[in-house]
Fold this sequence. Notes:
β5, α9 and β6 (about 210-215) form a beta-alpha-beta unit. The chain is built from twelve helices and 19 strands. Among the domains are: about 1-120 and about 240-305 and about 315-320, Rossmann fold, CATH 3.40.50; about 325-415, GMP Synthetase, Chain A, domain 3 (2-Layer Sandwich). The protein is α/β, with parallel strands linked by helices. The structure holds zinc ion (ZN).
Amino acid sequence: MVLNAWRMQRLIRTARASSHWPPEKIRLAQADQLRRLLRHAYDHVPLYRRLYDEAGFRPEMFRSLEDLQRVPRLTKQRLKRAGPEEALAGGTPPSACRLIKTSGSTGAPLHLYLDPSDNAWQRAVAWRILFEHGFRYTDRTLEIRMTPGESFSVQKLGVAPKDWVSILDAPESWARCLARRKHQVVVACASTLHALAEAVETQGLEIRPPRIVVSDSEVLTAATSRWVERALGTVPVDVFGLAEVSNFAWQCEERQGFHISADSHIVEVAAPPGDLGEVVVTALGMWGMPIIRYETGDLAQQVPGPCRCGRTLPLLTQLSGRVTDAVALPDGSRLYWPYFHEILGAHRDLEQWQVVQERAGRARVHLVLRGDQGDLVDRIRGELQAGLPAGFGLDVARCHGIRKEPSGKTRVIVSHCTDAPAAP
Ligand SMILES: [Zn+2]
């Protein structure tokens, strides 16, 4: 416990310093950690021994990041098929691990086994992002989730105290909790933040603006961001991650894209700079259940050049467009969520939206609008239709709310057309 707390402090301190390291220093540190991780995974984790043997790869073939492409990728399906005896490093009993079941919008759930060390590392890399935004140990956090997380004894003693609230409770009760407890930090999915902001406004509550509001797990639309800013007085920070590897990309104060936590994760985009490609991620600090060159199914674009904030960490844009979060077009190509995000984000009276495609050549767009907006539905239909191929049918209609997935998340695009190519 003490050892983990000490390790966590050290990780966060080093991580924050690395945000301003020269890029070459980061790359050398990444290569050094990956070299050791590959050796460990090959020697101790049956999943990687099999995967690498099948591909004819040996850890010694990786000498620098120039050799990264030679390391075989791990697919989600392969990780799902592997039981704990295959995915965990030899000698780690599953009973000593924290089991996480990821929901996954399609297919079977994925089971993750985090040993105490991997668990502490995942928390440290998530916390680092809060520290980048001015987090202090005295800050009280409100976190709204489907399943409340762990509570630690130090938190009860006043170190980073946290109030866990269930998303199954009424949003009005979250809002009253925030007004009463005056949290400095709020963490939730984008749709949950949206409901919180709505509940604050409808109840006319006086909120002391939190210093940090973090939106994760879902696409943060411009509409939700504006609403949260208006109701809570704070512009939310969009953070990206996966249960498999924790959070690894985040907006800075400039909101120009997502900085990669390059000291803890190697993030590749399988496309030339400027093009949209699948995100492949390596968690450099997970040794119990290593995740190396993992195909996430998410899409992003690399952004060249330094950020105005002064951090030297690489930048991505359009992150969180899942391969499946796209509308299938008749020519076999796909139209990704940023198309809808750009057009719909310009309408200030649009609160939420969702695109549902049940059959080829046609999609429905659901809009949640504020007040009586007259011809807004028709205008939005015209704007969206303008970028779609001729003959593609679009039904646009108002609704009162967007249905959540069983996991509690809301998806902006739900397409049941799976016959189009899987990636651009
Ligand atoms: Zn920046």
